Automatic annotation (TrEMBL):
<dbReference type="GO" id="GO:0005739">
    <property type="term" value="C:mitochondrion"/>
</dbReference>
<dbReference type="InterPro" id="IPR006353">
    <property type="entry name" value="HAD-SF_hydro_IIA_CECR5"/>
</dbReference>
<feature type="compositionally biased region" description="Low complexity">
    <location>
        <begin position="7"/>
        <end position="30"/>
    </location>
</feature>
<dbReference type="InterPro" id="IPR036412">
    <property type="entry name" value="HAD-like_sf"/>
</dbReference>
<feature type="region of interest" description="Disordered">
    <location>
        <begin position="1"/>
        <end position="30"/>
    </location>
</feature>
<protein>
    <recommendedName>
        <fullName>Haloacid dehalogenase-like hydrolase domain-containing 5</fullName>
    </recommendedName>
</protein>
<comment type="similarity">
    <text>Belongs to the HAD-like hydrolase superfamily.</text>
</comment>
<dbReference type="InterPro" id="IPR023214">
    <property type="entry name" value="HAD_sf"/>
</dbReference>
<dbReference type="InterPro" id="IPR006357">
    <property type="entry name" value="HAD-SF_hydro_IIA"/>
</dbReference>
<dbReference type="GO" id="GO:0046474">
    <property type="term" value="P:glycerophospholipid biosynthetic process"/>
</dbReference>
<dbReference type="InterPro" id="IPR050324">
    <property type="entry name" value="CDP-alcohol_PTase-I"/>
</dbReference>
<keyword id="KW-0732">Signal</keyword>
<dbReference type="Pfam" id="PF13344">
    <property type="entry name" value="Hydrolase_6"/>
</dbReference>
């Protein structure tokens, strides 16, 4: 997938393709327990682990906090409200500013969350400096222009601005069609790429205009001639087909919009839509960026111990669990490459996936206390550019909620 190409920090790049997937974890490595985990005595050593918390379905449901979330963070914080373990909030949401999401989490969890601990689906775009000087069409909801500028993009055009400049393009809704023929558009910049931040409000408008831009090589007012291919670069954030809010059933996510765009483009042109980058969970680019921020937090706190284990807590097997397991495979592959190359090995790192039952994934029966393998999904809801291996949607551990997830990690780390 194009999601592997990234101008990552020096020495922190990702391979062109993931290594061969691990064939699943042993039965003895999976824990399912509804009961509380006994926490050992106080650990005085600096933490060698950190948490990657999904937000929707794990900490909140829509605007409502999950009850277990505050209990979990009471365990994670000291008496002054400061976290004793490095934490990153890793969400595929992208229709807000990083600072706004941090404020929302602060209210939900009852402690101060700085923006530096929040990774939205589009946060790694600040690494893609090769596109920052191009004129980019941005699609999604919320402050898309401000988000783009904060990420380093200098020249952006919104769907609304494009529709206003070319009013004849948006023709599905008859009530919005112009009553008179508008004058020709002049002086509008040529679009040089597309950023898909998240699902838009009016899908028919965005689907039509994005397709127009791709077919016209960035000049949607021109007549259609030869279809350019490869088309303009597309940077897509958030591949979630579904997500969990207050409704009883999951809602369509940006992955559903991408599915529509991909199929429309192929139906019209006979060719595959290609992405310059796919970021947000489950892309390893996003997890690598999260690991980088976790280590930065530890160093800022003066903790000299390297962070060797990440605990990724999520509710969606197809994004949270798949992404954590895929990144764990990447870490194993990178360590094997170091050995083969004769390079001095860095401390062995791992990414453990923990699935909670408060969001997209719901266990129909009581979670059995015995340990056994379990495949959560039979239908692949992931993006078409990510290969499917059933072992990648098998969580290392399944627990009831995020408080149980924190206790489980504390027990494994002999931490209080």
């Amino acid at each position: 997938a194009g999601g592997w190409r990234c101008a990552a920090p020096a020495g922190r790049g990702l391979p062109a393709r993931p290594g061969p997937p691990a064939r699943g974890l042993s039965a003895g490595s999976r824990v399912r327990a509804r009961s509380r985990v006994t926490v050992p005595s106080l650990a005085l050593q600096p933490p060698a682990f950190g948490f990657l918390f999904d937000v929707d379905g794990v900490l909140v449901r829509g605007s409502q906090p999950v009850p277990a979330a505050r209990r979990a963070f009471q365990r994670l914080a000291d008496g002054g409200g400061r976290l004793r373990v490095p934490v990153v909030f890793l969400t595929n949401a992208g229709n807000c500013l990083r600072s706004a999401k941090a404020q929302e989490l602060s209210r939900a969890l009852g402690l101060q969350v700085p923006p530096e601990q929040v990774i939205l689906s589009h946060s790694p775009l600040q690494l893609f400096s090769q596109f920052h000087q191009r004129c980019m069409l941005v699609a999604g909801q919320g402050p898309v222009e401000e988000n783009a500028h904060n990420l380093g993009f200098k020249h952006v055009v919104t769907i609304e601005a494009l529709k206003k400049a070319y009013p004849l393009l948006d023709m599905v809704d008859q009530s919005r069609r112009p009553k008179e023929l508008p004058p020709p558009t002049t002086g509008f910049p040529t679009i040089e790429g597309v950023i898909l931040f998240g699902e838009p409000v009016r899908w028919e408008t965005s689907l039509q205009l994005i397709t127009d831009v791709l077919l016209s090589n960035g000049n949607p007012g021109a007549e259609l001639q030869d279809v350019p291919y490869p088309h303009l670069p597309i940077l897509a954030c958030n591949m979630d087909l579904l997500w969990m809010a207050e409704a009883k059933m999951p809602r369509f996510g940006h992955g559903t919009f991408l599915l529509c765009l991909e199929n429309i483009y192929k139906k019209v042109t006979g060719r595959e839509l290609k992405y310059e980058a796919l970021i947000g969970k489950p892309s390893p680019v996003t997890y690598r960026y999260a690991q980088y921020l976790i280590q930065q937090q530890a160093e800022k706190q003066g903790w000299k111990t390297p962070i060797r284990r990440l605990y990724a807590v999520g509710d969606n097997p197809m994004s949270d669990i798949y992404g954590a397991n895929l990144y764990n495979n990447y870490l194993k592959s990178a360590q094997q490459n170091q050995v083969q190359a004769g390079v001095k090995r860095s401390p062995q790192a791992s990414c453990e996936s923990i699935l909670v039952c408060t969001g997209v994934y719901r266990h129909n029966a009581n979670i059995p206390k015995k340990t056994e393998p379990h495949t959560m999904e039979t239908v692949f809801h992931g993006h078409r550019d990510f290969y499917f291996d059933p072992s990648l949607v098998e969580a290392s551990y399944i627990v009831q909620d995020v408080d149980d997830a924190v206790q489980l990690a504390f027990k494994k780390e002999n931490w209080s």
